[in-house]
Every structure is written in structure tokens, then in C-alpha cells.
Amino acid sequence: MADRASSAEDDALRAEIGSKLAGGLETEAHPRAETSELVNQIVGRLKSEAGGDLEAKLVIAGFTDHTITADDLEQPCETCMYYLVHRKFCDLPELMLPVEPHWSCRLWRI
User: Fold this and answer.
1) pLDDT digits (tens, 9 = 90+) for 39-77
2) Are 90 and 80 in contact (CB under 8 A)?
3) Phi and psi torsions of 89, nearest 5°
4) CB neighbours (10 Å) of residue 61?
5) Most buried in the list 19, 35, 83, 93, measured by CB within 10 Å?
6) Which residues make Cβ contacts (< 8 Å) with residue 11, sequence separation at least 6?
7) How big is the CA angle at 11 (ends 79 and 107), to the nearest 5 degrees?
């Protein structure tokens, strides 16, 4: 039962995130976190500025409701090392958000 409730909560939050992104929420999709220094800077901002604030997380992490291509490499959530396929979820500790496979964020990693 708990798994179903968690799944329903994830679905509701995923829909809310999708609505915010589709509604024109401006996020920091660039620069991409291509160096350890940038990753650490963004993760630090998520810890200090976002906390539990969903919108701040989306903005700082640079979420988009479409795949971003950087350096000729498509960067959808579904190919990120933090993506949990069966749950459609970002498992990066500072994010921990339900996502769609075709979305993207600037903390994407192979």
C-alpha cells in the first residue's frame, strides 16, 4: 500500500513540476555543470538556497521540460546516472524529485 501512495504522490508532484515548467518557469539551464567546480557550486546553492523549496530547486538545477543538447550530447533525465527508471525519479540527494524521462537538468551525468 505504501508503494502505491508514494507512487500517487510522485505522480502528483511530477504533474505539478510539469505544469510549472510548461507555464514558463525560468530556470538556470545554462551553463551546464560540466566541471566538478560547477557541480559543487550548484549543489552548494541547492543546499543553502533551495532546501525544501520546490521552485527554487527547479530554478537552480536548471530543469527543463524538454531534453537539452550540450556539446552534441543529448542530456535527458532518462540517461542520467541519478535517474531511477522504474520510478521515473531523480535520486540526486539534493533534488530527490519525480521527473519525466525527456526532461533535463544541468546536473545531468553519464
Assistant:
1) 999 999 999 999 999 999 999 999 999 999 999 999 999
2) yes
3) -140, 140
4) 27
5) 83
6) 98
7) 35
H-only helix segments in 23-107? 36-45, 54-61
Residues in the chain: 110
Task: Please count the other Cβ atoms lying within 10 Å of the Cβ belonging to residue 6.
Answer: 13
List, for residues 13-32, the tens digit of each pLDDT value.
999 999 999 999 999 999 99
pLDDT of residue 6: 82
Residues ≥6 apart with Cβ < 8 Å to 18: 65, 100
For residues 74-101, one letter each, b for 16 or more C-beta atoms within 10 angstroms of the residue's C-beta and e for the rest, the string is ebbbeebebbeeeebbbebebbebbbbe
